Amino acid sequence: MQHDLEKAYIPSCQDFQHNKLHTTKAPGPLHPHPIPDSHGSSIAMDFVGPLKPDEGFDCILTITNCLGADIHIVPTTMDISAENLAVLFFDH
Predict the structure, then answer these.
(1) pLDDT tops 80 at residue 20
(2) pLDDT at position 32, please?
(3) Is the pTM of this model over 0.70?
(4) Torsion angle, alpha carbons of 34, 75, 92, 42, to 10
(5) CB distance 52 to 58 below 8 Å
(6) How far is 89 from 47, CA to CA, in rounded Å?
(7) For the chain, domain boundaries
(8) Are 61 and 74 in contact (CB under 8 A)?
């Protein structure tokens, strides 16, 4: 009897089709990031790699300005130190 209800009655019943419970949670409120005050006050850095070595580099550093979405792409290596990263950042 349960099989007959699942296959015949439930798909054809309009009330059942309209009154189904939601199976997912309602989305919460969005919390956007605050808009930066000035150019360069908020940046994002990301490493892309490891890549196939080319001219001694096997990674790409992307530096993005969050206010204007300006992007700087800098070739680097995967084993870069924090000191060398700081030098790359200030040079580019």
Answers:
(1) no
(2) 81
(3) no
(4) 10
(5) yes
(6) 13
(7) 27-91
(8) yes
